[in-house]
Amino acid sequence: MENTLGLEIIEVVEQAAIASSRWMGKGDKNTADQVAVEAMRERMNKIHMRGRIVIGEGERDDAPMLYIGEQVGICTQPDAADFCNPDELMEIDIAVDPCEGTNLVAYGQNGSMAVLAISEKGGLFAAPDFYMKKLAAPPQAKGKVDINKSATENLKILSECLDRAIEELVVVVMKRDRHTDLIKEIREAGARVKLISDGDVSAAIACAFSGTNTHALMGIGAAPEGVISAAAMRCLGGHFQGQLIYDPAVVKTGLIGESKEANLARLREMNINDPDKVYDTHELASGNTVLFAATGITTGELMEGVRFFHGGARTQSLIISSQSKTARFVDTIHMFEAPKALQLR
Hints:
8-stranded mixed sheet, alpha+beta, 6-stranded mixed sheet
């Protein structure tokens, strides 16, 4: 999968990031997201693959492009037989977030990126558009911290695993009303809190890299982004756990269905019979091969944002593979106009 799709998958997130970055700082998050979706979809449909969106921009009626269940790739198009033999290609599942952190782009803030994860068919958890309680931590703490333990307990474990004083630890939490007690507990335990407005995929992944000064992600965020985070953390050997939140009273801010009872009914329809189950990386991204790709839209902890120059742009991407066990940073120059020396006369 990596050898066949690796470069083209990079180009998918690159094109989405470039399209979205043109709307950076313009205060229009919807357009920043829409153009990223369109660019990602257009590039995906030029790839020789049989892809299916399992996590996308929503249901068909609400998201005309990259909706859940949409078939993508040149070998899923009506004229596929003119380009390839679809039956010879492996079916893959794809989780996308074309503009992770739409508000960050709209207001010119750090940490937004175009991101996706792929695996063979059935290799990614088809998470409902609910919320998820999350815990991310470095590889040294994998299997030792636990989402069922208190923040105080996990900080003590993390301190021992990393051989750092609790006062030296930094925990990323999304700035939401629902996290008031969590933030208070983390601070009382002695750790430092880094509040973010959006973009918890980037924060989760940063836990797996030394030097980012991010040691844990705690709190509740969107469930689809939790699956994408888990895919990356599985490849990196980091710790990630997620537990679906289906009660609107717990979320406090944002939309999460009509009621707790309606949400439980929807989970049953999706064959999720244990709504309180805690999922780890191998359950959220269970495929034999998992590939994660992201390109910075605005500059973040791991990647530079898109930088335009006359006639082109420069991007930085991160590609993580369970197959080759690598995390590659790719720096790319995109030439919108051919250099004068290369122009045909």
